[in-house]
Write a structure and sequence with these properties.
Low-confidence stretches: none
Mean pLDDT: 86
Order of helices and strands: EHHEHEEE
Oligomer: single chain
Number of helices: 3
Distance between the termini: 38 Å
Structural class: alpha+beta
Number of domains: 1
Largest sheet: 5 strands, antiparallel
Strand content: 15-25%
Number of strands: 5
Shape: globular
Length: 140
């Protein structure tokens, strides 16, 4: 049975304070970290030292990116599993394949809303994706 997509909590659910900043920081860290698959340390002379330099540069860029994005305050879209789900509405706590949201949009005021649901299973075995337009408007 799919989760109630039109229930009272559909327009937004308040997460614990600081969730937006934590999710944004994690996203910046993930986006700026060097990919070890693209840099085989063991095949490059002094590769370990260069790898540490790349990681340090990634950390510095992630901090800079976080400051820039936090200043703008745009919502961040993350997989539902990244958002704290304790005490959340059904669309947040139910796995996506059973009708819950697959992606959530988290606003700077720590309000989360669904950003995408899975629809019907397609002939190739994948799920159709149903985007959800933002409803929550945080105060400036």
């Amino acid at each position: 049975m799919p989760a109630d997509r039109h229930g009272a909590g559909f327009a937004g659910h308040r997460l614990t304070a600081g969730s937006y900043a934590k999710l944004l920081r994690n996203d910046c860290d993930r986006r700026c970290a060097p990919d070890p698959r693209l840099y085989p340390v063991e095949t490059v002379p002094d590769g370990a030292a260069e790898w540490e330099d790349l990681k340090a540069a990634g950390v510095a860029r992630a901090a800079e990116m976080f400051d820039e994005l936090a200043a703008v305050g745009e919502p961040i879209v993350v997989p539902t599993g990244y958002a704290p789900r304790a005490g959340g509405p059904e669309w947040l706590s139910t796995p996506a394949i059973y009708g819950g949201a697959s992606l959530v949009r988290v606003h700077r005021d720590d309000v989360c809303e669904p950003a995408e649901f899975y629809g019907d299973r397609l002939p190739n075995g994948a799920f159709d994706r149903i985007p959800v337009q933002p409803r929550h408007r945080p105060a400036p």
